[in-house]
Amino acid sequence: MTNLPTTPDALSAIPAGELTETLLEICSSPSWAAAVAETRPWSDRAELLAANEAAMAKLTVEDLADAMAGHARIGKPKAGDATSEREQAGIQGVDSALLDELHEANAAYEAKFGHVFLICATGRTAGTMLAALRERFPNDAATEAEIVRGELRKINDIRINRLFDAA
Questions:
Q1: pTM here?
Q2: Is 165 helix (H, G, I), strand (E, B) or coil?
């Protein structure tokens, strides 16, 4: 992320356009960004995290698709994207057979659900992500949408915290 305010109250004070840009770096859903922005000012991190949770709860299926569009396929972080590479650090140096299994399971998941498998990958190994993918594959679309909503909230929380922790 670019040179940003280092506290929630400073973030609250930036111009609307800059705020929207910053929020879209956290989550690529314009509806999420607008819902979070509407809750400013934030006096502390907890208020901003609560705004994330409330905004995630309101997202439609289409909004969730917008949010997922900003995420790389598990096992294939976006090249040159430090956030994507950091979040998927658990796949670095993994055996190619395990990566092949992950890619095959991803393809089956995408064919079934019509979107990437989304999981909060921070701190997870390739093996645990593959196990989660296989565990979630039998879900119906509605159940999976709610799980995705929860995973997105966790990812957004991590990104919000990182925004201020990096300062």
A1: 0.88
A2: helix
